[in-house]
Amino acid sequence: MIARAGFLIVFAFAAAAQTPDFDRVQIHVEPVQRNIYMLSGAGGNITVQVGSEGVLMVDTEYAPLAPKIMAEIHKLSPGPLRYIINTHVHPDHVGGNDAIAKLIPQDPLLPLKIIAHSNVLNRLTAPVPGQPPAPRDGLPLDEFATSRKNMHFNGEAIVIYHEPKAHTDGDSIVLFRGSDVIGAGDIFTPGSYPFIDIERGGSVQGEIAGLNHILELAIPAKTQEGGTYVIPGHGRICDDADVVEFRDMVVIVRDRIRDMIGKGMTLDRIKAAKPTMDYDTEYVSADSFVTADQFVESVYKSLAGGAK
Amino acid sequence: MKVNLVRTAALVLAGVPGLLSAQVDFSGNWAPLFHEDLPDRIPGPELGDYTGIPINDAARLRADSYDADRISVVSEYECRPHGADYSMRGLANLRIDNILDPVTQRIVALHTRMGFQEMERTIWLDGRARPSDLAPHTWQGFSTGAWQDNMLNIYTTHLKQNYIKRNGIPRSAQASFTEHWVRHGNYLTVATVIADPAFLTEPLPRTQTWVLDPGQQMTRDICETVIEVPKAADYVPNHLPGTNPFLHEVADWYGIPWEATRGGAETLYPEYRKKMGKAEHVPERCERYCECGADGRLCGDPTPPKRDTQAQPK
């Protein structure tokens, strides 16, 4: 079953996401707050923390972009890359692990550790028929199976929270307590519907719970903006108010589909009723990874018992 | 005497760069005038009133689904300010300060502060580049201004999602807006044109007027969120499609055809009156905010006046 899920996710990404022309991709660096930066190229956003002890990355995009990513990081800090934290298993977030690990000098006194929830490791190491195993150097072998993992690096506390059954079953969000920044992964994707990966253990209720957890941790500054900044899996730098809008959208669509299921409507009839119509102009664009129908279907399956 | 003339000329010339970059002085304290759209601004728009707003179907459904309980139940909404495109037609007073380059004395920006939620905004006049698309959006957005004769044209992007009207008509984070500030003596007119690819089928123009108010002293407006109504974390008040019981009120109260209240681009233009048809229900007399604006009165009481008991002139 896991192997089938692995095949499906690779297939889904290959089918839904046009393979970027990596030669043309540029890595954009946005300062976020204190010693946190957001890197954006193709694939998911990367959160980078720099300081006197070295560099920490949250997610790694795709392997072909590793040299460009590391070149930008070296402009921010000459320090050694010490940690990679993966927010989830999808290839646009873990795809660069191995290539980056191979790019950096190997120093036994300053080893690179790759951290993720154990469900990410389990899925990456599950055999997928017809595909080579995931490269060992890129595996998150410093996995954790608890609800949270604490660490301290570059002078600030960092808390990695597992968000169960959210957009997958291995989601983590990363709170930089000193810098007051959250790396949210694909639980939060402003401008796009969330990709609730039912086959990989995601669910709409877990997605909402994950968003609410981000809102618990984020504290806005004056006039309900700024304060804690949130780096989404894809899209621009956000804050508490942006997460509220996104959470409200997911809750309201959930409410509508739940009501339709209660009235005995089939998935096809629900799709035809367009329960996301008033959100599509904000959350669907020409390069969207998730269509309105796919989002509706994932919510339907979550509520109708399709979620595992 | 000759020395004084030279000195005077030097002082005049020293002022030229500033004059060239700012033809009109907007600095000072301003009070809003509500003669335009008064019931819409004070106390605020009726639920279901989309008349004259060029909304698309998505905006209409979003507004139909809006439940004002959200402001109480979702605590994050309690202290939200208006967006910059709405704040100029809100209820608060305004102060405008010139931000000067300390060396050249050129005006590099205008800084505004409003009494509601302590909204502060900077309008850059120094030609700086806009932030990247990946930069955070804010309630007030990123504004740049340029002079066109005596009119200041302002362009604003990087807005957070907010509302076009306080009855749930949404305005997206994709929106931008242009302002035209004109000063006539002690009056400031601000024309705002909002473009929103997500929710508007064509730009929405609105105007607001302010009067100079030199004696005004702006105070604090401190807001802290509290849990007013304990509810489950995954509860967001909303009306399911087709279930909002309040949408017909505005048509019935004011004797407006239901279709007209649904808004859309054609309701923005006067020609629409010729084709809009008749109302299903026309009240025999004014039923709602009947004396709004009369004799300078505000719209505090929504109930109609008791005409048969009105005091007769002595």
Model description:
- The complex is a heterodimer of chains A (308) and B (314).
- Chain A has 308 residues and is of the alpha/beta class.
- Chain A has a single domain, classed as 4-Layer Sandwich (Metallo-beta-lactamase, Chain A).
- Chain A is built from ten helices and 13 strands.
- In chain A, strand 3 and strand 4 form a beta hairpin.
- In chain A, helix 6 packs antiparallel against helix 7.
- The N terminus of chain A is likely disordered.
- Chain B has 314 residues and is α+β, with helices and mostly antiparallel strands.
- Among the domains of chain B are: 156 residues, Lipocalin (Beta Barrel); 56 residues, no CATH class.
- Chain B has seven helices and eleven strands.
- In chain B, the strands form two sheets. Chain B has a nine-stranded mixed beta barrel. Chain B has a two-stranded antiparallel sheet with strand order 7-8.
- The C terminus of chain B is likely disordered.
- The interface between A and B is large, with 43 and 42 residues.
CATH superfamily of one domain in chain B: Calycin beta-barrel core domain
Structural class of chain B: alpha+beta
CATH architecture of one domain in chain B: Beta Barrel
Strand count, sense and barrel status of the largest sheet of chain B are: 9 strands, mixed, barrel
String of helices and strands of chain A: HEEEEHEHHEHEEEEEHEEHHHH
CATH class of chain A: Alpha Beta
The N- to C-terminal Cα distance of chain A equals 11 Å
Helix content of chain B: 10-25%
The greatest interface here is: A-B, 43 and 42 residues
Here the CATH topology of chain A equals: Metallo-beta-lactamase, Chain A
The radius of gyration computed from the alpha-carbon positions of chain B, rounded to a whole number of angstroms, is: 23 Å
Q: Low-confidence stretches of chain B at least 5 residues in length (pLDDT < 50)? A: 8-20, 309-314
Number of helices of chain A: 10
Helical segment tally of chain B?
Answer: 7
Q: Can you give the mean pLDDT of chain A? A: 93
- How many DSSP-defined strands of chain B? 11
